[in-house]
Amino acid sequence: MAELKDILYGVNITSSVGDMNVEVAGVCFDSRQVRKGSLFVAVKGTQTDGHQFISKAVQQGAIAIVCENFPDTLHEKITCVTVKDSARALGIIAANFFGAPSQKLKLVGVTGTNGKTTVATLLYRLFTQMGHKAGLISTVEYRIGDKTLPATHTTPDPVQLNYLLRQMADEGCTHVFMEVSSHAVVQQRIAGLNFTGGIFTNISHDHLDFHKTFENYIKAKKKFFDELPAGAFALVNADDRRGMIMLQNTRGTKKTFSLKKPSDFKARILTNTIDGLEMDIDGRIVWFKLIGDFNAYNLLAVYGAALMLGQQPEEVLRVLSDASGARGRFERVPSPAKITAIVDYAHTPDALKNVLETIRAFRTGNEQIITVVGCGGNRDRSKRPLMASIAVKLSDKLVLTSDNPRDEDPMDIIREMQAGITPTEARKTLVIPDREEAIKTACLMAKENDILLVAGKGHETYQEIKGVKHPFDDREVLQRMLALVAN
After folding, report:
1. Which partner from 256, 353, 365, 413 sits 20 to 30 angstroms from 373, CA to CA?
2. Over the stretch 394-425, which tens digit does the pLDDT of each residue have?
3. How far is residue 195 from each of residues 127, 136, 200, 202, measured CA to CA in Å?
4. Which domains, and CATH codes, for the chain?
5. Is the entire prediction scored with pTM above 0.70?
């Protein structure tokens, strides 16, 4: 319980009616979750406007309302507060209600198109192994110390997010590493949080279904750094041509990492094989289990962030040298048929290109690269032909299939992908909408030493079709089909 006036601290209030000293039992922005004594915050979303549900929230037992415009009917005995931006107000209110937990933690946000999950996960594992109790908020999972919770969003809503952070603080976590999506920045899900640092991995084509333009997407990422407090650090990839844009208006301490140019944290790849990476990091030669140029950047970002958080370089590199990647990120799947099988979450053109170029660099002879890939439904359609074009050019055989079609017809999605494939390239392309059949066919086509990539879904354990999530795990299906063809 908390008094309304206390949880409104820091909110830009434009007007109010009613008692500001009422006791609030909970904070909700979904009227269906309102209970007696709740504060209901009416937020204008992409699908619905919370202002339409104020009366329902009152009927459910809401004791106070925060909104941008007074409702037509003011309810007697219900306090109503108007604000300039209810989405931002929700974040600040949630932080206040749960006792500003981010101020009790060293909270580091990781943003970028690719690499967020790996960087956040590696930081969590690194600090855990170095004796700190840490928290993780990622696309794959939420972790409170050694306790695992299922992830619902890359960045949760403000109420869930602050509830998680409160649990982490109460259970003795000192550091928390979280992915910060561009959606979360625009939708003010991180408003009211106190970040110790921010990391920018890279930016490429993604989420234009939401942001509409690439420029808006860049601005969303930049806004995270613009709002970092003066005492935080802002660590960016200097090799990404938009990395320095992120630092233009930040109040945080500006730091860079790079494989190609002078930077605060510098590394050079010495050896890059299917078994690992040998790198020179700030004059120290280290062998890592992770592979590929993209993981070299991920490791360097983690190294830089750890040093900014006061850790010693030798100890950081010692622990990182034994680290494995996040689930579903360039994950090897055992194969009795001596086929190199890989599952990766690559669902953007740039991520798919990075993975396939890494695989091509490992080829030592006549190995075929066979790729299975699709594109998600109800998402950025403009990347579909780009994904197919990259996949067909960098593979010897390509199987186009379904990803999470959601409300779209899988064949409609595949036809849009096929627009990126020339008639000549079509000769090495198969279309198999059923994802399990597509993976099975790819396994049947693969011979000893071939490299098989199943891309797009990574860690996911479901396939979303017409609003229903059906059990489906690329790793499990791939392992089962590899065993089947080996017999």
Report:
1. 365
2. 999 999 999 999 999 999 999 999 999 999 99
3. 17, 14, 14, 20
4. 2-97 (3.40.1390.10), 101-320 (3.40.1190.10), 331-486 (3.90.190.20)
5. yes
